[in-house]
Amino acid sequence: MKKIVSILLVALSLTMGLYANGGQESSNDELVWVWYPNESTPEFAETRTELIRIVSEALGRPIKEQLTTDYAIAIEALVNENAAFSWFGGEGYVQAHAREKAVLPLVVNTGNSGTLSDAKYYSMLGTLLENTDQYKIGGDYNLDTLKQKKFSFVSNSSTSGFRVPSSIISKNFNVTADDLLEGGSDKVFAQVLFGGSHQGSLMNVLTGKADIGAFCNSCVNEYVSWEQGSYDDPQAGDILVVKDGADAPFDQEAGKKVRLIATVPVLNAPLVVNTNLVTPEEVAKVQQVLMSSEVYNNKLLFAPKGSDIKALFRAGQKFATVEDSWYDPIRKLSGMK
User: What is the pTM assigned to this prediction?
Assistant: First the structure.
């Protein structure tokens, strides 16, 4: 009898250990990191692998990556617990969190100050340099000139490639953001294209499929140089030039120039986690490692300025934690709040 009681106590102890963290089960099971199309391209393989290695070692659990060609696939994977981690834009994050409250920010990259005060990047509208004058009225860039143009967004789940630009364009034309999803003679745009990624949206402009398109500075910086203006504070009128030797398909468009006609700052995008798949202790452990000097001094993740390393972040930035409410400004743009 004494032996049976001991066995029951051991079993009870194990059960309590497994579910002591809000129901999540501690295990060594393999996890999945799903990537947006922007980061799924071959040139980012090394930095993706480095980030996954660091998180995997912090957890003591294997992590495999899943590459995608569509924002929606990545969001579905995280919401449906087919993936534990990703790097979403603010719009993708608030969409995922609205469907599954267990999806939360893990960390976000700071600005160059190393704080959240300048944790932003830019949504930009650009057109081929030779078409610049079509977007001016009285010598100034004017959104009214977008009427009946062929316009390229990234994805309707993209923050800087849809939510932010659609908010300023819809306000200008007194329509809803959803009204901008389709083109036609009775619509704002003659035709609407979706590049599927920021690279794809810029390519739509470079190849003439679109008259003008939306893309973000950090998403295309690997493929362009700044002939006028700067990456850190892009403004209307700045000129981007496709680099010689840029990765495909940009290598086919080397030397082409794009003029920006509008730019809008956007809150930095979070690394996200589905907390149904990892315990609070595991989340805290990963956050501690990601915010360490070992990580923000890692050149494969935070590339020095002028470096040839194709990293996801820039030297001077760090990782910091944020609450879900930090993305309330994105929710307001989306009409969620």
Answer: 0.84
